[in-house]
Structure formats: C-alpha cells, structure tokens
Amino acid sequence: MTADSEANTPQAVDGKDEAIAMVGEQQHTIDPAVEARAVRKIDLFLIPAMIFGYGLVYYDKAILGSAVLFGMTADLELTLVDNSTVPPAVNTRRLSWATSLFYFGMLAGLYPMTFALQRFNIGRVLGGVVIVWAGICMLTAAVTTYQGLYVQRFFLGFVESVIPTGFMCIVSGFYTQSEQSLRQSWWFSSTGIFTIIGGSLNYGFAQITGGGLRRWQYIYLLAGSLTFLFGLFCFVMPNSPVSAWFLTKEERFAAVERLRHGQTGVRCTKFKSSQLREAIFDVKIWLVALMMASAYTVNGAVSGFGPLIVSTFGWSTLASILFQFPLGGLCFTVILLTGYLGSKFNNIRIFMLILTCLPVIAGCAIIWKSEWTYHAAAPVIGYSITGFFGGTVSLIITIGMSNVAGHTKKSFMAATIFVAYCVGNIIGPQLVWSPTKAQHYPALWLGLIICYIICILASATLYLVLRNENRRRDALPVDEADRAKFAFQDLTDKENPYFRYVF
Length: 503
Description:
Order of helices and strands: HHHHEEHHHHHHHHHHHHHHHHHHH
Strand content: under 5%
Radius of gyration: 23 Å
Protein name: Major facilitator superfamily (MFS) profile domain-containing protein
Keywords: Glycoprotein, Membrane, Transmembrane, Transmembrane helix, Transport
Distance between the termini: 36 Å
Membrane topology: Multi-pass membrane protein
Number of domains: 1
Mean pLDDT: 84
Strand order of the largest sheet: 1-2
CATH class: Mainly Alpha
CATH superfamily: MFS general substrate transporter like domains
Helix content: 55-70%
Shape: globular
Structural class: mainly alpha
Subcellular location: Membrane
Low-confidence stretches: 1-9
Number of helices: 23
CATH architecture: Up-down Bundle
Organism: Cylindrodendrum hubeiense
CATH topology: Growth Hormone, Chain: A
C-alpha cells in the first residue's frame, strides 16, 4: 500500500471492527453498479494470488511423493531394506515421519502465525514469512541425511502455516456469507490444479539425465524460486476492503457497506480473550475440527505415498506421476462445483459434504479389495476417485468460516481448522505399514473408511446444531436499526442475535 492510501484510511475504533470508522453504525444505500465493480476488482486481485499461493503450499508438500521416486529415498536413506527375508522386507517408517513432521511444524506455527496476522499488517507478515519459506524450501536440495530432512520438513511446515489461515480470514473479511463458498473453493481448488501442474513439472524433471544435481533437488529449487516471487507480491496485500488500495474511495465504501447484512465483520486488530474463551467452549468449532481431521487423513497418505503406491501396481515412475492427473482433475472439478452450488443455493453445504464422502469411501474399498496385479486398472480407478476428498475439505473450510463472527474468534476457528488438517495429515502416513503390503495395506484403507464415517456423523450433528439455533433466533423480535448497528461492533456469532448460520 502507498503512503497516501495509508494516510487516507480511516482509523479503527479501539475494540471495534475497523469498518465502523468508514461506514458508521447506520445502514447506507449503495449503488449496485459500484458494488459489482468493487467485487470484480477484489476477485481479480485476490483470487489468482491465493490460487497460486496455496498451490505452492500443496506443491512443495506433494513433491515429496514424487521425489522419492527420483532417488531421494536412497540418497537420504528414507527406506531400509532387510535382505535377510525372502523377498526382502522394505521399511518406510522414515518416509512416513518425513511426511508427518511437516504437519508437526505446521501445528507449532498455526496459532502464533494467526495471531500475527490479526495483530499486524497482513501484507508485511505474509511477505516476510513467505520469503523465509522460499529459502527453507530451496535448502531441501542441500539436505544429505534423513535427519536433516526431518529438520527441514518441520520448519517448512512452521512457516507455511501462515498461508491457509491467512487466506481463510482474508476471504471472510472481503466477501459476504453467500459469496464465501465459491471464493474459499477457488483458492483451495489449487490442490487439484497443482496436482496436475506439479505432476507435469515432475514429469519434465524425470527426463533430466545429466547435470550436477539429482533430479529431486531440481524440483525443490524450482518450488523455492516460485515461492520467492509470490512472497514479493504478498507485501502489497491489503488488510481489508477498508484499505484496499486498488479500489477507488467510492468502491471501498461499497465493498465494506455490503458486508453489513451478514454480520460477520471485516477486521479488528485487538485480541479479545472473551472471544477466545467463547471459541474454546463452542461445540460447532470442535465438530468442524473433527470433520477436518477425519477428512484430511486421505491427503496425508495420498500426497506422501500416492505415486509410490501406484508404482506398486507395476507402473513405471513416469506412469505413476501421470496417474496423478485424473486425481488432480477430479479434485479441482469437485471443489469448484461444490463451491458454486454452495453460493447458488442456500443451506445445501452439509448435504453436499456428506455426498462427497461416499465416493472417497468407495475408492478406498476398491483399492483395498481389488487385485493388485501387473498394470491393474481397478486400484488406479479407486485411487483417482478418492479425489472427491477435495470437495469434502473445501466445504468444511467454508462451513467453518461462514459460521463464526468476531475477529479473534474467526482467527481461532481458522487456526483450529488447520490444526485438525495437520492431525489428519499426520495420521494418514502412519497408517501405511510396509509389512502389510502383501495384504494391500489394510490398516490404511480401513482407517480412512472409518475416518470418513466419523466425518459424516459429525457433519449430521453440526447440521442439527446450526438448524436448531437458527430456528431459535428466527423467533426473536427484529430491530433493523440494531441490526445495522451490531454489524461492525466486532461481536461474535453468539453475542449478535442477528447473525444467522449457514449450512
């Protein structure tokens, strides 16, 4: 942001949403054409940046699965072979821990990073942390032992934790409740896009036969270089619509005023312990966390072990990488489709979430129970349809962030969702037990099926909680003046009787 635009930004009232200094406590009429123009500019600025940013988060996690096919396992002794048995037994526990330690690092970073994003300038925090992330990513190429990789993965997860929570809070501060479903799905859809893009890049790196570095080292150098460029862009990210330098003064006013009806607020930099206490004892936050932890076990196994498992079916290294394309394409399509439908129709998000769980369960069952013969088709098909998990997780993010208000509470919800995300990603790789390969890793597939049943049950419970609370609030008297006044007081969803839950 320029010095002039900072000087022209209204100063937030202490303890209240910063939007109140711009639009006040009374409702205002805004020109629909100005509003539409403001939304279009916000979309053009934020959405491509967030797609690219979260794509990098996914890419440098997922490339571990491809890097192990390019010699990393041998170079860093990530697998141990016991030649005393016939056939030789392969132990992949070190690879499992290399995958999981990333998420332990993310667990350690989520709450402090989320606090920093609330308290300080978003652009400066994001920009600085992302540039550090770029350096850590490139340093993977310098790792020579599995212990060094463990350390690198932990700190990589720590700094990357700034991205998902930051993006969730940005979307909830710039868009209405009805718009958030599609916008949250847009940036999260890069999970699918970068599965394809990353697979294409890795396929290209697989052709390298010369040079002074191993093929897996080139992958990490490229990922780090792209991340550095994104870090430079992050420095111009505005805190909220109030300070969106790419909007005119009239457009900024419209961008803020239009958020009044949803009662979710824009941004408040004051940390409120009362909101934290409320969040800790709010059952819906923990139901959402349980849903996320259960749903993301699939990613922990797929991103770290997917290409390796596919190669078990007799496919070459290159073919195993190419089989990531249908998985990524389905993931991308389902995320955007559920996001679009969630923005188009009211209160169908939990219903769609449950529906997307069913193909994942079916895919796991197909992989587990089909024949793993040479070039087997059935397990590859089952592997591909597990890509429906992307829609499940995207909907969990949207449901979680659309159903809380109060900036401290929203920040806590965002961090908790991704703490649960980390838990799921830690559990997933640990279910891959090498000695059970001949039995098709039964602990993995049975464990994932159980997790998705838990996700369905938690989703149904959350639906009942939100529906019953809305019915109670609908019976209360309505004062339109109070509704307009409460919108930017930085009240939580429980404190504000005009807040309505979406499901």
